[in-house]
Amino acid sequence: MSIHHSQSEHVRSWTVRLGLPGALVFASLGLAGCGTSGPESGVDVEDVQEAADDPLGAEAPRSASPSVPGGPYEGLYDQKFVDELDSLEGQTVTVSADVNEVVAPEAFTIAGTDDTTVEPLLVIYDGDLADLEPGEPVQVKGVVHTVLDLPYVEDDLGADLDDPLYAAWDQEPYIMALNVDMSPSG
Q: How far apart are CA 87 and CA 92, in angstroms?
């Protein structure tokens, strides 16, 4: 009986020594494929992370054009901006222009560039505009709205605005400025 017992222990010991490493190899191969997507070869963790960080793909062409769908407009207040106005509703843009007219302590208009005939655009800003003068260059960063709804603007600002001053702009496009740079460079 002791010989049989020792053979049994020897077989069990041999199975544990070979079985455990084999099981670990198979388990690691099985886990390596879990939760992955994309090509299985030629891809490492850095490639996957870069793809996650850059959903358009590192090889996708990038454009500084203001007309990139879903991208913010950054440029002059000109005909190109006006042409894209409807698609910019609710987006944050940055436009450069000259002050056309100071309408109220919280509002002014910007004029199109000399080579365009675009109408002045209303800018409403809940900040300091005390030193703003007509003809002064400004850079406005703000949210585009295609229709001025004065009660909505008053709610947004938490202020009662002088309705007659805004009558000419009723139902017209405007920018709710987040920032007005009165000394833009370049």
A: 12
Helix (H) or strand (E) holding 30: helix 2-32
For β-strands 107-111 and 74-76, DSSP reports them as unpaired
Q: How far is CA 12 from CA 9, 25, 64, 70, 167, in A?
A: 5, 20, 69, 66, 93
Residue 92 pairs with which residues in a beta bridge? 143
Six token digits for residue 182:
């009165």
pLDDT tens for the chain, 186 residues long, are 444 444 545 444 444 444 545 444 444 445 454 444 444 444 433 443 344 444 433 333 333 334 444 457 999 999 999 999 999 999 999 999 999 999 999 999 999 877 778 999 999 999 989 899 999 999 999 999 999 999 999 998 999 999 999 999 999 999 999 999 998 865
Task: Tell me the C-alpha distance between 107 and 55, whole Å.
Answer: 39
Indicate whether this model's pTM tops 0.85: no
* Residue (of 121, 172, 113, 116) closest to 148 by Cα position: 172
Q: Which two tokens stand for residue 172?
A: 């017209």
Give the amino acid at 184: P
Enter the tokens of residue 180: 């007005």
